[in-house]
Structure formats: C-alpha cells, structure tokens
Amino acid sequence: MSVNQWTNKWCESKSIRSRYFREIESTNEMAKDEFSRDDSVDLSVYVSDHQTKGKGRGGNTWEDGGKGSGLLASLSFKPDQPPQPILTPLLGLALYKSVNEVWPKIKWGMKAPNDLLIEGAKVAGLLVDTLQQGSTIRVIIGLGFNIESAPASLGDQATYLNAHTAGEELTETIWYQFLDSLHWNFKQALADGHMNHLSASVAEEIKAALNNNPNISEKVSKLHLDGSIEIGNQVTPWHKL
C-alpha cells in the first residue's frame, strides 16, 4: 500500500471523511470544488497517488517522484473563527513539530514560507487556501511529502524521507503515529490562527526551525510576532516571501 492508501485507512479509523484516488488533477482543486459538501464536517481529507496538475504556491506546480512515492493530500478544515495571516507559519511549525516527534534523529528544517527541509533539501511543502461563502469558512491545507523518492528534475535541491531513516522501514504503524501527531498539531495551529500575533515562545520556535537550514547565508535574527522575518536590517512579512 502507498502512504496515501494508509492515510485513507487512518481517516476511516478516526471517522474522518476521506476520498482516495489513484490519480487526480489536483487534490486542492477537488477540496475547493466540494466546499459546500464539506460544510457539515470539521475535516475532510483528499489523497491521491498521483496528480496531473498538482498545485504549488504562486501558481507553481508540485511534482512527485512517481505514482505512490509520496503523500499528496489536501485537508479541508472548518475553523471555529476566521484565520489571520499568522496561520501559515503556525501550520509550517505544526508540520515541523510532527516530523520531529516521529523521526527525531533526522535533521529537519523550515524554509519560509512553506517548505520542510532535511539537511537543507526540500522534502515537503504546504499550500494554504482560505475559502469563505457567507458565514462558512474552510481552510484547505495542501501537503506534498516525498517519501520513497523525489522528483529527478529538482536534483539535489529535493530529497525524500526514506533516504534519511538509516534503513528503518516505514511501517503503517509509524505512519499512523505521524498522522496522529499532524492532526493534533494542525488543530492546535488552527485554534491559535485567529489571533493577530504569535506568542513570543512560538515565534522563537519558528525562528529556530528556520535557522536549521544549512543553506542560508545569514540567519534569521528575529521572528516578529506578526510573522515578519528579520534578517540583518531587512524585515519581510511572511506573506511576501
């Protein structure tokens, strides 16, 4: 089974509505198309072994390393309150915390605004969309995570999980542990994402994760509570990165 099939099984075990596809144009577009159908549930999950038109940030595409080689998922949450701009870095931190909980020996890092790294190479990415129709709001989190291989076109700029687990086999049990952690951390991020500012402690956590990138020429000197990143004398809002 692929991790996407495992993810679908995990959803069933948690009574979370999910849909699994062997191939689809885009899980994010499917989640958007089913916006109104999702209105009555807190979370719907869409997973596919391959996307023909996978979405990335800013109109970019998401490539996979082959059918079933990684997680391709969109999680459609119904937040209790309208999210604010700090939600995106909070979700990035949530993913970072989850992988560190399950695979603590791997050298993880974050790259703003939406990349998860291993030893400076991209292994996963997030795409966050907020949709509103009347009083109904949904946050759709697209997650691509290279597990068994990485896109060859990206060369050494990308990597995959199994290349860094010291030969330890990824089992369904371990994958469920990751999904349990991710579900919890995403929900916590969404619970805090309606606020205008990060807490000082969370800002320090995000700053540390960003500085765990060996490719940066200059470390982040400060993560402002509104999510802006300060490097040297330059301050850049998170959404402009």
Protein traits:
27% helix, 241 residues, alpha+beta, BirA Bifunctional Protein, domain 2
How does this structure look, described?
By secondary structure, this protein is α+β, with helices and mostly antiparallel strands. The protein has one domain (3-195): BirA Bifunctional Protein, domain 2, CATH 3.30.930.10. The protein is built from 5 helices and 10 strands. It has helices spanning 3-13, 27-33, 87-102, 172-192, 200-210; strands at residues 17-21, 43-48, 70-77, 108-111, 115-118, 121-133, 136-146, 222-223, 229-231, 234-236. A 7-stranded mixed β-sheet has the order 1-2-3-7-6-5-4, with helices on both faces. Strands 8-9-10 form a 3-stranded antiparallel β-sheet. Helix 3 (87-102) packs antiparallel against helix 4 (172-192). It starts with a helix and ends in a 5-residue tail after the last strand. 41% of the residues are buried. The mean pLDDT is 92.
Put the structure in a nutshell:
The protein is an alpha+beta fold and 241 residues long.
In the residues, how many domains can be counted? 1
CATH class: Alpha Beta
How much is the radius of gyration in Å? Answer: 17 Å
Q: From the coordinates shown, what is the CATH architecture?
A: 2-Layer Sandwich
- What's the mean pLDDT score? 92
- CATH topology: the name is BirA Bifunctional Protein, domain 2
Could you give me the name of the CATH homologous superfamily?
Answer: Bira Bifunctional Protein, Domain 2
C-alpha termini separation:
37 Å
Percent range for β-strand residues: 15-25%
Overall geometry comes to globular
